Amino acid sequence: MTKRSGDQATVRVINNFPGRYPVEDWRVYYWVVDSQGNLLDRHVTIQLPAGYSEACAQVSLGESGCIYKVRRWGLACYPSLLERIGFDPYPLLTRDPERFPGGEDQELLHIYLAVTHFDLPGHFIIADPVYPLLLFDPQGDLKGSWLWGPTYAGALAWMASGGKVRATFEQVRRLEPDLYAEVVGILRKMLQARRRRHPPLAE
Fold it and tell me: Where are the domains of the chain?
């Protein structure tokens, strides 16, 4: 599990412990902002432990359901649901003292997070009322949605400032949509100017 999303456009199935336990295929539909500030829609399959869908109720758009958080690198589902479905983390233990100097408890926490947190392909993941992230279980039922950021303008501001500005602009979008559109245009120009000053080493 990583903490930053990449641009692996060919990735279609994501599992941090592939082949190590029975799984369910869930579908994630989401939007990303690429390195030039363009919006792209994406969808991938994430593999949650078998039985996870039974612990999650069906939801409507705007209800988070089993989604704990969406960040710029990807999606986090609730690790607490693993206990409800009887997930056994012990076969995944390595007991490697170099990686986990804190011992078994530290590694168990790592496993619980890695099993439920997914680094989604895309330069910067966003999720707001205009560009929501949607999570469907194997039966096609909506089990999670996220509309509370990062927003498109927030992603552009973070990228244009080199990570210095962290703002959602959601209130501006909701109350002054024309101003929000203007802010997006300004931020895109700032991002392009930054890229000219600091061209990426590789795309």
Answer: 13-150, 152-203
